[in-house]
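Changelog note: in this version the structure field was regenerated for every chain. One regenerated record is shown below for reference.
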Amino acid sequence: MKKLMTLAVMLFAALQIFAQSPQKFNYQAVCRNGSGGIIASQAVSLRMTIHDLTATGTTLYQETHAVTTNAFGLVNIEVGNGTVVSGTFATIPWGTGAKYLEVELDPIGGSTYTSIGTPQLLSVPYALYANTSGTGGSTGPTGANGATGPIGPTGAIGPTGAIGPTGTNGATGAIGPTGANGATGSIGPIGPTGADGATGPIGPTGAVGATGADGVTGAVGPTGPTGATGTAGTNGTNGATGATGATGTYAGGGTLNYIPLWTPNGTTLGNSILLQNGNFINTTGITPGKTGRISAYATSSTNYFGLFGDNNGGNNTTGTDWSYWNCGGAGTFGGNEATVSYTAGVLGTNWNGANITAGVIGTNNAAVQGMLAYRDAAAANYGVFGQQTATLFGYLGGAIYANYGQYNANILGYFGSASYGAYGQYDANNYGRIGGSYFGVLGNGNSTGLAYGGYFTGNYTGSGNPSYTYGSYNYSIGGTQDGYGVYGYASGSSTWQHGGYFANSSGDYAFVASNYSGIHYKIIGSGTVSEIIPTKDHGRVTLMCPESPEYWYVDYATVQLVNGKAHYSIDPILKDVSMFDANNVYKVITQVNIDDCPGVVIKNKTADGFDIVELYSGTHSGEIDLQIVVKPKTNYGSGRFIQAPGPGYLKPDMEPAQAKAANQGSKNTYKWPADWEVYGYDPATFTKVGNLVEGGPHNGMVKVGENQFMSSTEYNAYIKNQKSK
């Protein structure tokens, strides 16, 4: 902020024309900002220039002063006693023409000066001319007294006399307000362990643990004694025998071994289409080459059926051509193909080449089939199995999965396996798991565009505001170990990585654990960082964090001024984490808590500390509060008002031109080494199997075993290979 300096008063030291005059004069002023406010207790720089004849005339002499204003904004300097820039004060020709004093100010103590004004010097400095004026001649005779002239006008007030001796101390003033708390001191040694407290009340009963495994079945106990035989009941009386009916008549005849059939109206006996042929019954009189059997079996094979139908042709009427049907057996069978091997309670097939055992089988070809209580050629068992194509199938009650469904080799899902409660997959890179070894829900999204590891939506469609709607509710019950309600980790090769992102419909957003264009943040976002404090007398109040265009560390301290002097040593930890060099001079703001002390100045700044000296060689003693402002190493080089990220949906390369700040930040900002680099450990040592390694030589890889790691692509392929039908 540009500041102006209001010239309050200019006082000149008393000069005696009959004595040697000092080569300097006093200058005093009050510093105020552009709004008229006093610039109190702040280091400022002054540049004083003496011009000849006019306000812009030749520079005869120039010097600078580095001073600190007091609590009232007052500064006092001696012109002629500053740091000389040009000229010699003692050779200024005060006796030849007017002289002008130009005053320039840098309100932050640097060397960027602003001219405040160039007033003309009045008569007092010309007393310096008395040092070089000529010597008078010899004293002449005393002349006659002239007539008394009129009384002249009152002369100008003479210069201020020399400062008198210090008066006696006045009465002690009232005690001022308590100063700000000093910096927290170092932690003292740990005190002795206190006595054990009284035993607390018994906590609530914990949750019921999981049911333990069934114990070994105990030995069968001895057979109990046989009970006594009950008394036999009495037999009932036989009923009377009924009368014998009349002998029936029949007409017609039949062929040997055919099952007879009454035709046409139940009056004539003839042949049916059923022929008894050994131990089975054939059907006759149907389409040539097609046969059927009831309770059929063949002596030349192990085929047997409760009900058999053939639509494949061939001569099976005699029951000797059973090698054509290679069936283990079926309660009910209907076939239209050959060279098959079936065992089923109910079998219907239009396809050959099978080797199937099932309670119920229905099949049309090698792809379209369905079974109940099914066992395939590889001795894998299924409760229910259905298949439309070689890749489109599903089953219930399998040996590996309780429920499995597959649309194709990539799109599939299942419930109940040895590894997961549920698994769903769009392809090898995009999948989700529920109920795994180390997680409740796991999602992996991997694509060339938008990818979600997990996507959750809470949607309330009712009316009013009865409760809450959660997009995701995370609750960690850590027990005796550390817990995280939400854990976020981001990795990649782009310059935009954030561990977490949060936003709302009002346009507020925030990034957490953020790396934006090489600049590192704990939290960055819209709004302010705030603290909520519930108070009894003032309600729930909010305290805001101070904001700054650039990054600073601030430390506070209280020092004891003794006889007008003190020294402060920079905390070595603060020194280690901050920048201390010629381009990064730290700031010191003082508050003097001593009566009558005109102020102090900070001198001899180094990276180790600085001196505090009372103005005007004062000798007061008492407390002074300090605020030390230093430049951190973290993000050093990023500059002021640096570019910030937009909302999460807006990628950096799509930023509107109006949103770009003048300072885009620097790629050469200072970055602290990672925790594992400083303390010399490998993060993989502490990573669970199946989790991503965060840092170290295996950063970004998945741990699959002790000292075994895979890239994400390799791990996804590995998981895919572990799945089978």
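Spot check on this record: The first helix runs from residue 572 to 576. Residues 1-19, 295-302, 311-326 have pLDDT under 50 and may be disordered.
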